[in-house]
Amino acid sequence: MVHSEITNVTQRIIDRSADLRGPHLERMEQARSKGPARAHLSCSGQAHAYAGAGEDQQYMATGTAGNLGIVTAYNDMLSAHQPFERYPELIRQAIRTAGGTAQVAGGVPAMCDGVTQGEAGMELSLFSRDVIALATGVALSHNTYDAAVFLGVCDKIVPGLIIGAQAFGHLPAVFLPAGPMTSGLPNDEKAKIRQKFVAGEVGREELMKAEMAAYHGPGTCTFYGTANTNQMLMEFMGLHLPGSSFVNPNTPLRDALTEEGARRALSLSALGNHYTPVCQVLDERAFVNGIVGLMATGGSTNLLIHLIAMARAGGIVLDWQDFSDISAVVPLVARVYPNGLADVNHFHAAGGLGFAIGTLLDEGLLHPDTLTVAGQGLHNYTKEPKLKNGELVWEKGAGRSLNEKIVRPAKNPFQPTGGLSRLSGNLGTGVMKVSAVAPEHQVVEAPVRVFHDQGDVKAAFKAGEFTDDVIVVVRFQGPKANGMPELHSLTPILSILQGRGQKVALVTDGRMSGASGKVPAAIHICPEALDGGPIAYLKDGDLLRVDAVKGELEILTSGVLDRSPVTTDLTANQHGVGRDLFGAFRQNVGSADTGASIFGV
Predict the structure, then answer these.
(1) Where does the Dihydroxy-acid/6-phosphogluconate dehydratase N-terminal domain start and stop, copy by copy (predicted)?
(2) What is the number of domains present in the chain?
């Protein structure tokens, strides 16, 4: 039986979404009834569509088998996406053996937040999600496909692909991951070197050596940030093949999963007997399951924005209260860096997502009867893929944790509530990732230092200005102000202050990386400073309380909200490194608590 609070939140979402969800499903049914327009294209149109198909060209013109569209985020700037270079040919070959055809429908941009962290390019990062959605729409707009596979892993890429896929929700959709890179320098050792560099204890040569040892090959970064949280969600929500998220790249099992995923996508098309459009997979229950997975594994705070935008694309309306209520009843069952010392390879070996899903199902904390690309029921995702004599099979998982320092049964969790917390008070509404924050750091009451640029925070640190307890406020970092960049490059500084015994916290209307966590950070503050939110009224020395235990975010100094809000010159954020092109996004984007999207504002 499903836990009553999970049932209540789900019903609340269904009721709230009725006016949008019904029309969305009607549009998808109309699109399905029309079917792919290949047969209705002019001869010239068909010839254009098939001209580059090589050996498949004639078959596409005369055959009746399905045609699979490939939407790829391949580039070799991202280690996580480099393995996708090989995927189109693997997919074509697999589909040919199944009697169908496959084409790369289009590519979408994919930027690396690790490269742009602390740089001007980070101000394009969140907006790249909606660009990816738009590019997905362009890729599929030819309407010549019976199903689609999506090649994407990282931070904004999977959410953007999901948003785009739901505009074509009448098509089956299977997401094909690339897997994590093999383990290198442990993430905690890398973090220590970063802190030593900031403190001037080691030089750039030693820092570079450590970074290269941590990020050393193809695949996703091994910490549990946004990219790997995305992969978790695709299993909890039923869009990956079971157990496929954390299989390393360029291995026989990885290739077999890729080939089977492509065949599975085409088998789910309207041409077969198991039509499974993505609009039916991604229903309200699937999104609730995704939120449960987010809380139970201590995933990235970025998904508190992305999941809202992803759901809205399918006519489903989520809000942060849904996340908070689910977090209150879902235990934390995993500790993966930065929430622990293990990386995702260790997590996978200890039982991984299969065990986590199984133990949450046992406790009634997931909807068990959801429709997935693996068939009816989430129980399929407790199984493990294996190669037996060259054949891909799924076998029953271990059913127990192989390392309870990494993943535990829901009956014996690391903590009784989830990894993320909603904060509210007279400063507004925000969120905090609490799974990595030690209990003694979860309540901070201190004077604020206010900044409008993260570079100024770094300068103040170098000047030795942070000598007492402090809450660092970085404002005018919201989606309307400058695209809501991540402020992860502040983590080493704040960690050093915390290590000195100071009480320290960050408060911002911007974002933090999914890799952040040990320092309490109240982020995504709404209303943002540019909208005249209370964060715009603060001055240096005002007393603030950040309380992750009670979920409070309070200005304690009297009279603050009687002041006029501060304004600032944002012209420097409007130009350079592509920022000129995104003025329309900044002017039309919604608030963080509604998904920070240009869609559905």
Answers:
(1) 68-379
(2) 3
In tens, the pLDDT along 33-45 reads 887 767 778 888 8
Peptide bond into 338 cis (omega under 30): yes
pLDDT value at 63 more than 80: no
Decide: 291 and 307 in contact? Cβ < 8 Å.
yes
Say if CB 279 and CB 25 are below 8 A apart. Answer: yes
Least confident of 26-35, 324-333, 381-390, 589-598: 26-35
Of 147-151, 172-176, 571-575, give the lowest mean pLDDT range: 571-575
DSSP 246-263: TPPTTSHHHHHHHHHHHH
In this structure, the answer to whether residues 96 and 207 fall within a common structural domain is no
Query: Angle at the Cα of 231 (from 227 to 233), degrees rounded to 5?
Result: 115
Q: What's the rounded mean pLDDT across residues 241-269?
A: 97
Annotated ligand binding at 43? The verdict is: no
Q: What are the strands, taking DSSP E only, across 434-503?
A: 443-451, 470-474
Across the chain, what does the average pLDDT equal? 94
pLDDT category of residue 514 using cuts at 50, 70 and 90: low
**In the sheet where 67-72 sits, what is the strand order?**
101-107, 67-72, 147-151, 173-175
Same domain as 224, residue 212: no
Counting Cβ atoms within 10 Å, is residue 438 exposed (0-12), middle (13-18) or buried (19+)? exposed
Residue 154 among known ligand-binding residues: yes
Burial class (CB in 10 A: 0-12, 13-18, 19+), 150: buried
Contacts of residue 34, defined as CB under 8 A and 6 or more positions apart, other chains included, come to none
CATH of the domain at 490: 3.50.30.80
Q: What type of residue sits at position 412? A: N
Residue 395 has pLDDT above 60, yes or no: yes
Is 428 in the same domain as 340?
A: no
The pTM for the full model equals: 0.94
Phi first, then psi: give them for residue 361, nearest 5 degrees.
Answer: -60, -40
Model pLDDT, residue 52: 87
pLDDT of residue 43: 84
Give the C-alpha separation, 259 to 388, whole Å.
Answer: 16
For residue 346, give the 3-state DSSP assignment. Answer: helix
* Contact criterion met (CB below 8 Å) for 500 and 466: no
Tell whether 345 is covered by a domain: yes
Q: Residue 247: which of 216, 220, 225, 227 has the closest Cα? A: 220
Specify the amino acid at residue 445.
E
133 vs 126: CA distance, rounded Å: 12
Has residue 208 got a pLDDT over 70? yes
Whether 129 is in a domain gets the answer yes
